[in-house]
Amino acid sequence: MTDELAKAHNIKILVIDDDIKMLELLEKVLLRKGYTVETASKPKEALEKFEANGFDIVVTDINMPEINGLEILRQIKSISPNTIVIMITAFATVSSAVESMKLGAYDYIIKPFNMEEFVLIIQRAAEQIALKKEVEFLRREIQQRYSFGNIIGKSPQMQKVFQLIKQVANTNSNVIIYGKSGTGKELVARAIHYNSPRKDKPFIAVNCSAIPESLLESELFGHEKGAFTGAISSRKGLFEEANGGTIFLDEIGDMSLAMQAKLLRVLEEKEIRAVGSDKPKKVDVRVIAATHKNLEKAVKEGTFREDLFYRLNVIPIYLPELRERVEDIPLLVEYFLKKYNEEAGRNVRISREALACMMKYSWPGNVRELENLIERLVVLSTGDEIRVEDLPEHIRACKAEDIVEELTLGEKITLEELEKRYILKVLQETGWHKSNAAKILGIDRRTLYRKIEEYKLEEPENAAGGEADGAD
Questions:
Q1: CA 162 – CA 233 distance, rounded (Å)
Q2: Cα separations (Å) of 339 from 27, 128, 335?
Q3: Rounded CA gap, 141 and 315, in Å?
Q4: Gyration radius of the chain's alpha carbons
Q5: How many angstroms separate the Cα of 446 from the Cα of each of 142, 405, 415, 455?
Q6: Element (H, E) at 264
Q7: CA-to-CA distance for 359 and 313, rounded, in angstroms?
Q8: What is the phi-psi region of residue 262: left when phi exceeds 0, alpha when psi lies from -120 to 50, beta otherwise?
Q9: Are strands 84-89 and 107-110 parallel, antiparallel or unpaired?
């Protein structure tokens, strides 16, 4: 382990020895390597320091007055079983070595020892500690990220989803999540898994529509060597990899009837058969499925098995589209701004007018579309505030209702006059870029040019978006 890694993980070492010169030497060597080091020449003082501060590694002499090293080892392991303890002694015996190892010592060093050898032992122990810290950190990150408390939403629809996650997480019941693309189906599936007793076991996500039909059975259930052309070795399937945990079958409505029959058998028998094998394997896997389709309609149309539908539809969760929970948009915008500001080292905020405009947009891509937009705006923004003009044209167009109020100012005007004023407004907002204005207005460029001529709308000389050709 490098000195930098020692500093990065803040490896703390306690050195205990009644030989002051040895104590000072070991402290000097370890400090030079980047470790945080404390020393103690008296065993009682050492145990007090350990209880007060905690240490990743303890290096202790065995033969000391008052309390010997074996007793220190025993007490440290009772307080903190994960602490690594390294024993050193000038009076080595087989019995002391065996006893220290039985009590959980990491290594046993005999004085006088080579300092390079000592540093190497410390380095290996520190690498083990660093690895454990990284694993614990990642586990906490995963659990925090997929805690249902971090799925954003204060709307009644999302509160209902949160309540269902709470209720189903501690069960083994099959769940199916209904929702359009981008509504967060996988996020909900992960939240269920990471709040369940299976949270320390695998979560395997499979997009059933992304895997060719000819490969899906092998992917899910595995295959034996020689089961088909190209099967040069046996391979575990995803159900077996998820054993003890959860498998998330996304877009299950796109699965063929033949595969549906095989999946049904797995759900009923709790066992899988690899392609090319006649030996079943028991699996303990919770199934969470998801789809954007209406499965009840698919059952009636004969494209989805009724028996599989009832197996999966034990607990249905319906995710609303973003346009159905407009009150959640400010929360989501704030959440994604914080996320991408931190990633980019920025401090970009959003103007009230831009947020109001975003709340009027229909968001066909749902939360995923909103997140992608915020990420792009944070990365590309040249200032510290996202304004209406920074938004894509198709989102700025959602201000139509406001424009109607603004353009009429309470007047009773004809539809023709309103159309004229609105077209002019859109042209001005797009810098007279005809193609973009036509897209916002929902007409082709030929029609737009005809309207400009009909209403005698004059393009300013400094307009940036005028095109030379006047027809599509």
A1: 44
A2: 42, 32, 6
A3: 28
A4: 33
A5: 53, 28, 21, 14
A6: helix 257-269
A7: 33
A8: alpha
A9: parallel
CA–CA dist 76, 84 (Å, integer): 9
> For residue 59, what are the β-bridge partners?
15, 86
CA 21 remoteness from chain centre:
51
- The tens place of each residue's pLDDT in the chain, 472 residues long, gives 445 555 556 789 999 998 899 999 999 999 998 899 999 999 999 999 998 888 999 999 988 888 888 999 999 999 888 899 999 887 766 677 778 888 889 998 888 888 988 999 999 999 888 888 877 777 666 656 655 666 888 888 998 999 999 999 999 999 999 999 999 999 999 999 999 999 999 999 999 998 888 789 889 998 887 767 666 777 888 999 999 999 999 999 999 999 999 999 999 999 998 888 888 899 999 999 999 999 999 999 999 999 999 999 999 999 999 988 888 898 899 989 999 999 999 999 998 888 888 888 888 899 999 999 999 999 998 889 999 889 998 888 765 555 555 556 667 677 778 778 878 877 886 778 887 778 767 678 888 998 898 889 988 876 655 454 434 4
| Both tokens assigned to 312 | 């999966």
DSSP state of 34: T
| Structure-block tokens of residue 414 | 């004809």
Angle value at C-alpha 87, between 81 and 92, nearest 5 degrees: 140
Tokens of 399: 């201000």
Any residues with CB less than 8 A from the CB of 43 and at least 6 apart, and which? 16, 64, 65, 66, 67, 68, 71, 72
The strand pairing partners of 313, in sequence order, are none
Q: List the one residue out of 69, 23, 98, 21 whose CA is nearest residue 13.
A: 23
* Strand ranges in 185-339 using DSSP code E only, listed in sequence order: 203-207, 246-250, 271-272, 281-282, 286-291, 315-318
Structure tokens belonging to residue 161: 């989803």
**Cα–Cα distance, 126 to 131 (Å, whole number):** 9
| Among 284, 216, 201, 283, residue whose Cα is nearest residue 249 | 216
Does the CA dihedral 390-391-394-396 come out positive or negative? Answer: negative
Among 121, 59, 51, 106, smallest CA distance to 80 is for: 51
Task: State which amino acid sits at residue 63.
Answer: N
Question: What is the 8-class DSSP label of residue 323?
Answer: G
Q: What is the DSSP string of 390-422?
A: GS-HHHHGGGHHHHHHHHHTT----HHHHHHHH
Cβ pair 171, 197 in contact under 8 A: no
